[in-house]
Amino acid sequence: MVDKINNEEVLNDENSKKTYSNFIQDIINKDMEENTYGQKVHTRFPPEPNGYLHIGHAKSICLNFGIAQYNNGLCNLRFDDTNPSKEDTEYVESIMEDVRWLGFDWGDRMYYASDYFDKLYEFAVELIKKGKAYVCDLSADEIREYRGTLTQPGKNSPYRDRTVEENLDLFERMKNGEFPDGSRVLRAKIDMSSPNLNMRDPVIYRILRATHHRTGDKWCIYPMYDFAHPLSDYLEGITHSICTLEFEDHRPLYDWVLRELELRNPPKQIEFARLNLNYTVMSKRKLLKLVKEGYVDGWDDPRMPTISGLRRRGYTPESIRDFCNRIGVAKADSIVDIGVLEHCIREDLNKRAKRVMTVLRPLKVVIDNYPDDMVEEFDIENNPEDLEAGTRKVPFSKVIYIEKYDFMENPPKKFFRLTVGGEVRLKNAYFIKCNSVVKDENGEIVELHCTYDPASRGGESPDGRKVKGTIHWVSAQHAIDIEVRLYNNLFTAANPSDDTEGKEFTDYINKDSLEVLKGCKAERSLLNADLKERYQFLRTGYFCLDSKYSKEGSLIFNRVVGLKDTWAKISKE
Ligand code: ATP
Ligand code: MG
């Protein structure tokens, strides 16, 4: 089982340098001291273009590019495209966009494992010549059967002792398309009784007639990941090949391939713990299912943990990099609370977001003693956290909207907002008192009648009388209509998986993960809202325009995150 990370530690701002003081940097320091790779540090980020990148990949990106930057080294972007049936150029493009958006630059070093298919073939021939690989005619099932188990050694394939000549001939004919898919494979000749199953003569080439997104139909044999990866690293001059823990057991094979081919100065594989977040899923298979079966509105649905989803939701690259630094790099698996990610964006937006007033669930308020045609403008600060952000003029008039939840006809004790007979402060404007309510035929309150105190202009108390509540408002005649989309966790279970109680992970989808509010009222300054900006809707949360559906004349805002940092509170308790 995985442990939860130490939340206190993550909150500590001192941790922003964490990426650069961890066990991986320790290994690099030692290599530098011993001159293993000279003073060179060269990493790579190796996504398989079979889906969009998610926040877990962001951790790997920040680590690989970050470590390279920190050590004045280089980081390549390499598409690990050895599995043609699932890969697609749509994914290649989205991956490039996402890495760039996160703020990283691979310079002119964008590669594809498929660039090396010719060389990989030659390496395989080389292995055969060294007597270290053979063509095997066992079926996939037989290979599995022969492999043995964790407690039982495997047995040798009857084809294991083919001569070099026969192997060379058969392998070439595999390449030339003489044999059907799946009928033969090339296997490394290692040790069928190795305690490590990966070392029991693993398959390194298979026959597969599938059109590759780059090499088309040139090849009908494809190298396996465990063979292609160390050699791609080697060919690119990678020094430190950083990957996630599930590859730990593959490291002996990684090293074997490089050693048997007698390659000099081989790269070093280093494993770290992958990022897990609660209330979401990160496996590409699951994300693809959510997209394909219409549970979400594409890979960039703002509820998805994908980089494109987070971007559309309104996350900034800075907040994601901050998150990746805070969670650090460890050797043991853990689950990070989704609240940590929200904490990071909230901190970032608190500094940069412009404040505006909007009313999401409007209730009409008529101020009976306010002159019919009068309009006043109040100066309201754009961001109390940033004095240079200045102020803006916000119009006020006789009819305004307030939030429905800011009025109660039968309030409980300690309700400090508006009630019949009660007084409240309208932010930066006036004190108002509610005198009566108007209801529709269903008994629902549709309008309040209030009076204002002209002496409380600017929201200052004229005579020292106290008003406990301050609420936000929007002038009705000046308001614009907007649509607002509120998001919640996509799943109701902390760890939505397929096997608990025989359920599928999709059974745990949160039906209330998206709430669409139409006819919200906003101050007119939002007419000039910019896709690049983020806004704090006063008392409501942080918002941004939806890049997919918002257009002039019909503005749609996504809630990035609410204002309340429940997570920070819990972690301090
Ligand atoms: P799949 O879900 O198909 O197994 P993957 O998540 O391994 O795919 P890749 O495209 O192979 O996706 O990953 C690219 C790189 O990102 C790899 O080095 C991988 O180790 C790393 N990576 C993937 N998921 C995470 C994660 N959750 N945390 C940290 N790194 C990750
Ligand atoms: Mg992978």
UniProtKB/TrEMBL annotation:
A motif ('KMSKS' region) lies at residues 281-285. It is found in: Cytoplasm. A motif ('HIGH' region) lies at residues 47-57. It catalyses: tRNA(Gln) + L-glutamine + ATP = L-glutaminyl-tRNA(Gln) + AMP + diphosphate. Residues 470-546 form the tRNA synthetases class I (E and Q) anti-codon binding domain. ATP binds at residues 48-50, 54-60, 244, 274-275, 282-284. It comes from the Bacteria. Its EC number is 6.1.1.18. The keyword ATP-binding applies. Monomer. GO terms for cellular component: cytosol. One of its GO terms (molecular function) is glutamine-tRNA ligase activity. The gene is glnS. This is Glutamine--tRNA ligase. Keywords: Aminoacyl-tRNA synthetase, ATP-binding, Cytoplasm, Ligase, Nucleotide-binding, Protein biosynthesis. L-glutamine binds at residues 80, 225. Belongs to the class-I aminoacyl-tRNA synthetase family. Residues 353-453 form the Glutamyl/glutaminyl-tRNA synthetase class Ib anti-codon binding domain. CDD domains: GlnRS_core (cd00807). Residues 40-350 form the Glutamyl/glutaminyl-tRNA synthetase class Ib catalytic domain. GO terms for biological process: glutaminyl-tRNA aminoacylation; glutamyl-tRNA aminoacylation.
